[in-house]
Amino acid sequence: MSNPYHFLSVPAKKAFDVTLSTPIKNFIKATFGDKEDYSASIDGFNSLRAEALLRSNYRDDCSKLFRYYDQLHAIEYKLPITENQIRIYFKWQDALVSGGGLFGGKQKTNGSWKLAYEKACVLFNIGHAYSELALAQNLSIDEQMKAALRYFQLSSGVFSFLKDYVNANSLSDLSVDFEPAVLA
């Protein structure tokens, strides 16, 4: 029996490799000295980012994506990741602009020194992951149809939250996929 339903998933934003370790270690050393060695934790955070973001498929396992977002949220008010203090430039590629993509045009790369930008991009990919999980369901089976519905609702909730988050952190100018109409 063929599937009469046709759904689209939200494409993922592509993260570029960023070194988190060196700037954070330098800041901690300059601020607090060498009293304790946080190198293993910081290197683990750097590895978590790479494992969570530098891949193209979240359908099989998105737990690292959630863990990385949780870690970003935990350090948000503990480490001043800004252009003037802990200098980490987060670079991402727009999800909705590509050569043969949804809106056509040329692939656009954006970046920011703001940790809020990194969080917003990760949230975008969490919304993408939920839409991918929804599409992976067999819609001819009732339980999987219900799971697909739930995943699409979760994806929608992420983008609804992201719309407010992007607005509150003045990020809408950084990426076409962060414009309120697109997120809505």
From TrEMBL:
- Gene Ontology CC: one annotated term: endosome
Q: Name the InterPro entries for this protein.
A: BRO1_dom (IPR004328), BRO1_sf (IPR038499)
Identify the residues that the record assigns to the BRO1 domain, covering every copy: 6-184
Q: What's a BP term from Gene Ontology annotated to this protein?
A: mitotic cytokinesis
Per its UniProt record, what Gene3D superfamilies does this chain match? alix/aip1 like domains
Pfam families named in the record: BRO1
Name the chain's protein.
BRO1 domain-containing protein
The species is: Rotaria socialis
